[in-house]
Amino acid sequence: MEETTKCELVLHINGEQRTVITRQAETLLFVLRDELGLTGTKPGCLNGDCGACTVLVNGTPIKSCMMLAIETVGKEITTIEGLRDTPIQHAFVRHFAFQCGYCTPGFIMNIHALIEQHPNADQSTIQEWLQSNICRCTSYQEIEAAVKEALQAKKTDIQPSHNRISRV
Amino acid sequence: MAVGKSIIRKEAWDKVTGRAKYTNDFKEQGMLHAKLVTSPYAHARIISIETHEALAAPGVRAVLTGKGLPLTGEDMRDRPPIAADKVRYYGEVVAVVVADTLVQAEQAARLIRIVYEPLPAVGSPREALKEGAPLLHEELDRYERNKTTYPEPGTNIAHRTKIRKGDIKQGFAESDVIIETSVSFAPSDHVAMETRCATAEIWPDGSIHISASSQSPFMIKRLIHTYFGEEAGKIVVHTPLVGGAYGGKAPVQLELLAYLATKAVGGRKVSVWNNRECDMVTSPVHIGLEATVKIGATKDGVFKAMEIVFLFDGGAYSDKAIDVSRAAAVDCTGPYHVEHVWCDSLCVYTNRPYATPFRSFGHCEQSFAVERAIDELAKVLQLDPWDVRRKNAIRPGHTTPTQVRLTKSNVGDMPACLDRLRELMRWDEWQRIELDAYTVRAKGISGGWKTSTIDTDSSSGVILTFNSDGSVNVISGVVEIGTGTKTVLAQIVAERLKMNVDDVHVKMDIDTQTTPEHWKTVASRGTFMAGRAALAAANDAIRQLKEIAACVLRVTPDDLEVGFGRVFLRDDPAIFIPVKDIAYGYKFPNGNAIGGQVIGRGHYILRRLTPLDPETGAGKPGPEWGVCAEGVEVEFNRRDYTYRIVKAYAVIDAGKVLNPKAALGQAMGAMSMGLSFASREGFLFDEAQRVLNPQLRTYRPIHFGEHPTYIVEFIETPQIDAPYGARGIGEHGLLGMPAALANALSLAAGVPLNELPLVPELIWRKQKGDSYGSL
Amino acid sequence: MVPFEFAYYRPQSIAEAVAMFIELEQKGKRPLYYGGGTEIITLSRLGLVSTAAVIDMKAIPECRVLDADSDPLVLGAALSLTELVEANPFPLLTKAAKEVADRTARNQITLGGNLCGQIFYRETALALLVAEADIVIAGPNGVRQSRINDLFHQHLQLSRGEFVVQIKVRRFAVELPHFHHKRRKQGEIGYPLVTIAALKKDETIHAAFSGVCPFPFRSAKVEAHLNDRRRPATERIQAAVNAFPRPILHDIEGSADYRLFVAAQLLEDALRELGETI
Ligand SMILES: Cc1cc2nc3c(=O)[nH]c(=O)nc-3n(C[C@H](O)[C@H](O)[C@H](O)COP(=O)(O)OP(=O)(O)OC[C@H]3O[C@@H](n4cnc5c(N)ncnc54)[C@H](O)[C@@H]3O)c2cc1C
Ligand code: FES
Ligand code: FES
């Protein structure tokens, strides 16, 4: 059995293949941020409690502070940098669903997966999923409105307008 | 044009795509990392610190201890940046390990051996004031302090603010009833999602470069100069976006450690980044309080006298806690007219994490005490609690506790807020109903007001630079902590220059070398002060544009107007020149040129503020009093004592709403924070005053789905000298929430609930007649 | 962030896992079996766990089985709580699992991890205790199967090198009337003040508790009182509460006397829901 605790990992992130040399004990969060410069994924507690570090692993939301990078070899990782022009990003902007923006990547990743997996999510499903993230700035009411609009957009398949309107 | 519209915040797309960068996102090869070694005791003498083993560990570059460092503190210098002789709170920094990687720093930190001699710990203000209580600061008489701080050596009192208005004896003599209510809550935390972070580096030319997640970049510069004698001009502070602050990032703490650390490693860049546990207890916290309120009133509920004692739990060091205790005193009565006022507000030392402003700056604390008392008074008099508040509502012509006469401009319309709240809440329909054997619904309300007690010479500056396409850049020292103030500044500038707000760009980051100073991004003063500065800068730019245009168009500047991307003749707009043609000066067809890049500059300094008289408190602490009336509706289960917050209401006098959706967001976010604080937050201490829940696993702020429906409305009573009449609104949403929740639950449960947080166990205990806090 | 180094292994079979464990143990690595890793990683950070090697169970096919149609139904120990909730093979277990941590964390937390973790609530154990599930364990001495009730005393009594492969729940137990409730200090996220799982089999109530004591338990004495139909329900409940093992938790989530108050109320709800006359 191999002794060294550093290793080379080939990761699939946002559709790209990235190779890193890292500690086997390193969490995905630190590899993303420190090794790969993907700082959109935020540390908030390193303890699984806040959801700021949420990324998708094979489409499932995962708190990247509680998963080893080495566990994700062979899986598709999506971070906030990998999302462009999704319904939930547009809805967040339109509904003022963030203020300081620190919790936002985590929320968006979680909600994006929710919409993909449960396009017909009802109130209790929305609640079950979103309880995993803490926002300290908003009242959650704005986030709730954004989620509902994005679900609607997904359902009716209306493409969000791509120009970035600055007025509501 | 731009003012009054829900303009989307300028950095919105950065924030939803992961592009937005916060202090800890700026990674650099070769940057060193620090780990804070903190005290496991709340009060202990440090006998020895053994660092050899840690210094020899792989990757370690330095280990800092507290020997020989100057004392720090904004009002009174009582705090060593690293504890030297003794520790005074659980979590206090005793050493800092600097290493190549965070993991190495953590590993080495575990090798430091510290011998402590535990001392008896002081757990609450009342305990700290007891005869014979252990003293936290034996040298209180020797600390350097500013002129408005009055410590009481030989005690644990860091500062006392006295308010004496009218004649309290006469007030009580004229009263038909007198009630007395006591309230209390322990310190809690801001829990910004971004934990605090600071990096520092010293360049070969001696300049010191600090990056910090801070509300006070300019204060960092000033304090490093004051504490360590560094030349102010050589200190450059950079602040990118800040991930939530709520007052907690106003004090200067980690920045000092980062500075000391970089000095210890020859100027290499060092990052000091709080983990969540340190962010909660090592860095400053939300203040705790024990208060007693005595109200004298006529039998129709007209207030005659209020006697108030605030014992603020400032924790181990006074820092900004002194200010908080003063702010609560200044507005001690709440938004009510009271002729005879007596208030002593103490900032008390305890062996707990030290306190700092929390959104509302002493005012949700103040209103929790007074508004609970008002409900108790209404109950005794069998009057409607809304009526009592309405009857005593503050108005222009009245005076505040510090004897400032109120005008139509410097105070919002309290009666209007209360009236609208009553309608929104359908107050008259019912205040308590039983839905079934166990389920009760109840409503509670609270008034709120606030002025910002800030330095009397606080100032703000704004620079506008023009681009060659005629668009404008706004450069202001306001930190974007999430409040959207920079976007509002762009709106103000667009409005004044009559241009499209999309053509007004804002510089988000602060760099104290190139950004004009804004005192601190606190106290809801960003829009007011920086807004005034922005208007002045816009006016300056207009003057310059007109001057150049006047030459080109051969008219006098007085006949010109600026707007819609042009400078034009007022009486014949067909005669004009586009702004873009003169923004960088004007070049005549023959090649001659005049003017140059248009750079507007403006500043604003608060006027006619005065310190408080030490004996009576008389003085003008702030420019304006914003008011609000708020309410909460709960559904309470009488069998198991659980409850659900169904609705939360706020009616706030905003003066003028500059950005409706942003304003709503500010109000609702503040309400959420207030409800979270009141219903579930607070540190739990053991007997030795160790914090037992410094983690989000056990200290659980409100989560999605636990939130009520928010109903917010704004009243608009302009503050004449504010930009477009706007008053501060970033904090008011929070002001009344703890009191309104407590009032609603007290009514629902039929027992006075005067402690926070209002968890079901507390209500259960109160109804059984126990005292709380068996832990 | 794990502030020390360890090596990560991902065996593909039970035999390989056991062999690795033995070898690493001999080398002094104090290996840990690794399920979702959530507890290992977070407690490492706090200095409460340390190891030089982890053995991930998620690639062992037996640990990933989810057979909902067989009797007994088979649940692999490396299934995440979310997988269990979504497939819903055993509704009482679903209810228990759904209350642990939060949804995103449950995407990672495994059934085996929750049963074997240091964090002493181990809430999914309650459903298995009342259903008298079987537990398949592998270790240096091979694979064995036992009734969970014989092995779970405060925590699962595993010997060094053993790990949980599967849980087997007999079909009839899945269909029994049941009750589950978790009450927290406040709100809907967090550790329990009291959690109760109960079911009724052949007119006998089984009940298990978490949050009451610093370990989950099912107690014959408590159940004897609960099932003593000669006495009125309130007396049965009081007697049951008095028979709880000691110590009663008294900590930051709630005091001991409050927990007992809550437990008594939840028991009343349980009895009512299970058709007892109150
Ligand atoms: C955010 C958060 C909230 C939580 N809230 C709750 C809660 O509300 N209620 C509750 O009950 N628990 C709660 N927990 C505790 C959680 O269920 C346990 O920590 C559990 O161990 C995590 O499962 P895991 O698969 O990630 O375990 P791991 O971290 O992989 O392992 C935990 C321990 O179990 C051992 N282990 C894992 N799998 C096996 C196996 N198959 N056989 C033998 N040993 C094994 C490991 O060696 C290790 O000692 C919470 C945890 C987190 C992170
Ligand atoms: S940082 Fe991962 S959950 Fe908080
Ligand atoms: S927007 Fe600041 S924490 Fe959510």
Question: Can you put this structure into words, describing what you see?
Answer:
Chain A contains 5 helices and 5 strands, in the order ββαβββαααα. With 168 residues, chain A is of the alpha+beta class. Chain A has 2 domains: 6-80, Ubiquitin-like (UB roll), CATH 3.10.20; 87-158, [2Fe-2S]-binding domain (DNA polymerase, domain 1, Orthogonal Bundle). Chain A has a 5-stranded mixed sheet, sandwiched between helices. Residues 160-168 of chain A have low confidence and may be disordered. The longest helix of chain B is centred in the last third of the chain and has 28 residues, at 526-553. Chain B is built from 19 helices and 32 strands. Chain B folds into 3 domains: 31-119, Aldehyde Oxidoreductase, domain 3; 285-454 and 610-768, Aldehyde oxidase/xanthine dehydrogenase, molybdopterin binding domain (Aldehyde Oxidoreductase, domain 4); 459-605, Aldehyde oxidase/xanthine dehydrogenase, molybdopterin binding domain (Aldehyde Oxidoreductase, domain 4), CATH 3.30.365.10. Chain B has an 8-stranded mixed sheet with strand order 3-5-1-12-9-10-11-23. In chain B, strands 7-16-15-14-8 form a 5-stranded mixed sheet. Chain C is α+β, with helices and mostly antiparallel strands and 278 residues long. Chain C folds into 3 domains: 7-56, Uridine Diphospho-n-acetylenolpyruvylglucosamine Reductase, domain 2 (2-Layer Sandwich); 61-173, Uridine Diphospho-n-acetylenolpyruvylglucosamine Reductase, domain 3 (2-Layer Sandwich), CATH 3.30.465.10; 177-273, Enolase-like, domain 1 (2-Layer Sandwich), CATH 3.30.390. Chain C has helices at 14-26, 38-45, 81-87, 91-98, 103-106, 111-116, 124-131, 148-151, 171-174, 220-226, 233-242, 256-273; strands spanning 7-9, 32-34, 53-56, 66-67, 73-76, 134-139, 142-147, 152-153, 155-156, 163-169, 178-183, 194-201, 204-213, 215-218. In chain C, the strands form 4 sheets. Chain C has a 5-stranded antiparallel sheet. A 4-stranded antiparallel sheet of chain C has the order 11-12-13-14, sandwiched between helices. In chain C, strands 1-3-2 form a 3-stranded parallel sheet, covered by helices on one side. In chain C, α3 (81-87) packs across α4, α4 (91-98) runs antiparallel to α7 and α10 (220-226) packs antiparallel against α11 (233-242). The radius of gyration of chain C is 19 Å and the shape is globular. Chain C starts with 6 loop residues before the first strand and ends in a 5-residue tail after the last helix. The A-C interface holds A 1-5, 7, 23-27, 29-30, 46-48, 51, 54, 60-63, 65-68, 70-71, 110, 128-129, 131-133 and C 1-2, 4-9, 20, 23-24, 36-38, 41-42, 44-45, 56, 58, 82, 98, 101-105, 107-108, 188-189. Bound molecules: flavin-adenine dinucleotide (FAD) and FE2/S2 (inorganic) cluster (2 copies). The site of flavin-adenine dinucleotide has 30 residues of chain C, from β2, α2, α6 and β10.
